[in-house]
Structure formats: structure tokens, C-alpha cells
Amino acid sequence: MRVAIVHYWLVNMGGGEKVLEALCRLYPEAHIYTHVLDRANVSPGIARHPITTTFIDKLPFSKKNYPRYLPLMPFALEQLDLTGYDLVISSESGPAKGVVTRADTPHICYCHTPMRYLWDNWAEYLAASGLLTRCAMRLLLPGLRRWDVASAFRVDRFVANSHNVARRIRKHWRREASVVPPPVNIETFTAKKSPGGDHYVCFGRLTAYKRMDIAVQACTRLNRPLLVLGEGEEMDRLKAMAGPTVRFLGRLSDKDVASVLTASRALLFPGEEDFGIVPLEAAASGVPVLAYARGGALETVRPEETGGLFDEQTPEALAAAILKFEEDELRFNPAAIRAHAEKFSEQQFRSRFMHEVEQAFQAVAGV
Prior knowledge:
Radius of gyration: 21 Å
Shape: globular
Protein name: Glycosyl transferase group 1
InterPro entries: Glyco_trans_1 (IPR001296), Glyco_trans_4-like_N (IPR028098)
Low-confidence stretches: none
Number of domains: 2
CATH architecture of the largest domain: 3-Layer(aba) Sandwich
Helix content: 25-40%
Number of strands: 13
Strand order of the largest sheet: 3-2-1-4-5-6-7
GO molecular function: glycosyltransferase activity
Number of helices: 15
CATH topology of the largest domain: Rossmann fold
Domain Glycosyltransferase subfamily 4-like N-terminal: 13-187
Domain Glycosyl transferase family: 200-332
Structural class: alpha/beta
Strand content: 15-25%
């Protein structure tokens, strides 16, 4: 079967790219289409596939400034020729689902989230942009939103990564979506033998919406050791507010991340994510998670069993959650936490996603 996978852009390895890796293992002969490709920052499992980019990739500074070309991406997607494929899978977080396919070709969209630039977080993105970008986006937003909704009807079947995202799909696009959680590479992580650890940890891309500043401030105030893993534009700001108990380790290999997690007391997860694979990677290590009680964390963290939730996105609320956790830290069972993570294994993902593919083929065939 000839399969095309359309991914929004390939410039780093985040949660969306880990799902793409799983799709590549599921369809080892698939061709990948994307707007922008930075081969130095994608995994060998992705890079070994034939990868075609849109004309966005050839524009100046596209590998770093690709969001600035968002208004051109709908046009770029519609220029892709996918007529030679039996199945098209779009991986949607930026523009990916707007490709044009044959009437007899099932198009499944695995949606990490409807574009934040256009919907839930548009005001935050505008506030963080320069004057020229703000003026341009205010003019372009209505047209981009209309295209985004219209292109949703080119998809035969939506699959959301969480019930949280399925609600957004229903709200913004008026489409229903099945839910298949993204896969966690359970085998990469080893569950610790007993509760406790040397430090707290948080990791991921150091961007504003992940709110790593809350973890840095909370641990600084409580004088608790915190290891921050990852890189991003927030690095300098976070270092400026960090106390002596906070260390920044930068970007680590998967093996080193697993080692750091196993030695941790708990993962701090102060951002609101669409789903969030990081809490499940911590769970696969037998490590409790203290998470902000919004978004995907409500589907991956079980209070009093695999961690705890805090209701306000503030350093004070996280600090209170840390103190509460430390009162009864020894009752968290690493083996039980690991068992929770195993429900999100790649094997489970493959089985559930293949069921969705079968349903899409039946729908297109009119069965």
C-alpha cells in the first residue's frame, strides 16, 4: 500500500515527531511531506524515509522563522501532488490537513491540536509578536481561520490524541474525532525500585507556554533541587530567576533523560498541554507527576495514585503541591505508576490506530 504522511514541519524532535516515528515504524515504506526540514534535528528513523518539502523550505531563514510563513502554508499544501497514494495520513498541529487527495483515497488526520496560532492561543502569540507581525496577523487571521475550517472537510476521519483535543476539534471545526493517545516508548525507561530521589525534574522545549518558570520559582523558594532538561528561547530568562538549587542540563539523549528521571523524586509539569507525553515517560520510570490540572494532564495523571494536580498556574500553587506530596511521598508505588504508563504503549497505539484506518477505508468505500 502506498502511504503518504503529511507532517507540519520537521525542525526538532518533540511529542508530535515521536508520533511520526511510530507512524513510520507502522508504515516503513511511507513517503513524508512537510513544509520545512532540518535534517540535523530529526531522528534517523524519520530521516531514512523519502521526505518532500513544500516551497516554504526554500524561503529565507525558513528553518528558524517558519511561523512567519504561516499565511503561505495553505497554498503550499494544495500544491502537493498526492494522487499516487492509497492512504494519506496528516499529522496536524500546524497546517498539514489541507492537502488535496483523490476521492477514493482515505485521508486520516491524527490531530495533536487545532493550530494554536489561529484558535486557543492566538491572543498570546500576538502579544508576544512585534508590531508588524501583529498588524499582519490581524488582517490575515479571518481568512486563515476560514481556510482552516474549510480544509477540515477534506479529511475523511479525525483521530485526536486526547479527549481534550477532540473537544477542540468539535468546537472549531464542527467535526467528531475518535481518540487514540500517542505512544510512549515504554522500553526506553526503567521503573525505579522504591519511592524518593535526589531532585525534582522538569523537561521539554523551553518555550513560554510550557511555564517552566513556575517550576523554577517554586523550587527556588522552597530550596529544593531541580534539574531542568531541554533548550529553547526561555533559557536565559529562566536562568536569571533561578536560585542555586536549580541546574540546567540542556538537551540530553533519551538514555540520559531516562537516567535523570529514574533518580528523580517527581516530575513537575506546570504547563497546559494538549496531551503531553512527558508525564507518561516519567510514569514509565515509576516517578510521580505533579501537574497543572488542565488539558491532557487530566487524562494521564491519576491523583493520589500516579501523582497530584494543582489548580492554579502559579509558583505558590506548585510549591503547595510539592509540600503536600512530600508529606506522603513514600506511599507512591513505582511499579503501580509504571503499570499505568504501559496502557499507553506503542503496541496499544498501533492496534487502535489500525482500527481507525480500517474504518476510514470502509467509509470511503461506502461499506
